[in-house]
Amino acid sequence: MKNLVLTAFCAVFIFSSSGANATVQVVTTTPELAAIAREVGGNLVQVTSLAKPDQDYHKVEAKPTDVVKVKNADLFVRIGLDMDQWADAVNNAARNPKAQPGGVGYVDAGRLIRKKEVPSTNISGASGDIHVFGNPHYWLDPGNAKVIAYQIDLGLRGIDPKNAATYDANYARFSAQIDQRLKAWKQELAPFQGKAVVAYHDEWVYFLSQFGLKAFGYLEPKPGIPPSGSHINNLIASMKSAGVKGIVVPSIYPTRFADLVAKEMGGSVAVVPYSIGSLGTTDYFNYMDAIVNGFKKAMQ
Ligand SMILES: [Zn+2]
Question: Ligand 1 centre and the CA of 137: distance in Å?
Fold first, then answer.
């Protein structure tokens, strides 16, 4: 009898002390949310992103293994604004009450974001436009990275209250680091105030407004619609009359359209990381470094 109790005790002890069970499981829809969750969760969390770097976040094809990941998640973090609508099917199939909207472990990171380009008229998406609830690319503004981190902090406190002080401290450290780096990024882009660039996809409105820059136009005629010959020709004509030369293309998109325009204009194409994980980037800071450098290159 004594042995049996001891064996049971040991089994419980081994089970509860194993790292996998002690760690809070965080599942995010994108690598950027995952990187920010790692900053706030530190070594108390294990983070997985459903979308891989350089996958178009507008149209990820979910896999059966994604359902298992969400099933085992303590915290589920998403972009919202219908950017990651593909995750709804995964979440429904996982049947994890914590990860469902309204659940203790559900974080819609778009909730507290001040949204831009919210359509004033009803657009259905039938025209191919994929930004029907406003522009969802808000994580490209470092200021919004802090808002995302804050919401992840709240989520982690909710599911793991005993470590609330650690999550708060990690959030405060990340937030202070962003403030510090933001000053440097602003200095680097200060000489280009008011300048305009051409981008591939309409994803820079948050970034541009943070840094006092402008978008002149996009290689896509509408968000999600591939470039066409007539659109590119019109764009070249208007770039010529406005004297705009710089083009920024995230690593996920083909550069042939940009190269064509640049050749015509004598301008330069800057390829920037689409994801944290693209072009060797590993965290929010070196990702934003690469993006800021890319915009500098395009505008020089
Ligand atoms: Zn988009």
Answer: 6
